Amino acid sequence: MPELPEVEVVRAGLQPAITGATAASVTVFDERSLRRHDGPSEDFVDRLTGRVFRAPERRGKFLWIPLDSGHPDARDTGAPNASNGEALVAHLGMSGQVLLRDRHTDDRLTRIRIELDHPDHGALRLNFVDQRIFGSMSIDSMLPTVDQRHRTVPSQVAHIARDPLDPFFDDAKFLRALKAKRTTVKRALLDQTLISGIGNIYADEALWAARVHYNQPTESLSRAKAILLLAEVRAVFVKALAEGGTSFDSQYLNVNGESGYFSHSLNVYGQQGTECPRCGRLVVREQFMNRGSHLCRFCQRVRQSAISRSALRAG
DNA sequence: CCCAGACCCTGTAGGC
DNA sequence: TGCCTACAGGGTCTGG
Questions:
Q1: Residue A252 has pLDDT above 60, yes or no
Q2: Which residues form the Formamidopyrimidine-DNA glycosylase catalytic domain (predicted)?
């Protein structure tokens, strides 16, 4: 459930608190949270302990903290990726949280704990909490971005597209790629190699705002609709960010353990049985891609004529 | 190569 | 009260 706005709230919350902090000690309580780490937990602990955190960064739903060496002579160890550096990568998955605490506060379901020493803020504790263990932490090497612009990214993020709030996101490239897809529009929105940061909640909200049905074939989506849809994705992201993200239960919290307010602004997600805010008809929930899709069947209809035309072309 | 679907994973809610 | 099942869906992998 943490999607771009929620991960960005976490990144922004971490930034002033942990930048410049040293990882004094690291404890892995559940090794399954290291699924994306290439090596055993001892390797994770060894490579993280003593390192200094730089300012956290984000692409889509991936969050990472570039690491400085805590040892002045470590630059000469000849490590293969020394030139590009390493980062602590976090993905929150379905239920992950990064909570910033004092040294005496524990959280239930903490899978990884990092004790931090900050030159200004003193002793801190970073708890990585994750109920369903779809999230992960790992130490990863940084690679140059494919388009060579802006910065490097962790190797496991290299295949993830820039997100629509990234200043280097290429609208024209996205629209071309969308048109070339042979799939349906919600699948495309959730495809992190096409556009990143969108999950089930914001996909449903953006589709409703743009009056597009989730099952509309991408090839039959008009250019105007595609442009509108991208604009609505950005709009819903910006609004959610302003409200501190979406929380339904305590599955998503900011770094201080607080909930966001965007759940009060949802138009269709989780609103089945209530009235569509636009036309007053009932919002429904349908199964799609093993997930719930929330929509107004009146406002959001598959354009049959467009499908017929594309079917004729295909046939 | 591209796309669809299976799979992972567990606390919580609700039924009986 | 307690057991059982359904549910939530990111990202990755595999099969067609």
A1: no
A2: 2-135
